[in-house]
Amino acid sequence: MAELKKKVSENSPGKFFVDLSCINCGACRKFAHDIFDEQAGHSFVRKQPSSESDNFKTMQTLVACPVNAIGATSKKIPRAVVDSFPVEIAENI
Fold this sequence. Notes:
25% of the residues lie in helices and 15% in strands. It is an alpha+beta fold.
């Protein structure tokens, strides 16, 4: 689970963050490319979600991150987010 005390410095202030365990796999950018970006070998929260749709996609990244490097100040993941999987991120993938 992502640790707030280990968050990367590039994160935009707010509810969501990426910590130092990020392996820069790019999954978060596939789900929420408006929210996440990459720099110095890791992803980070470029801007916090500003709509329900962006918030939902960002919550999906919490579930999809293979190393649990994405965190939120609220630990509750809505059932609808979990039930939205599997998600097609590219044709046949």
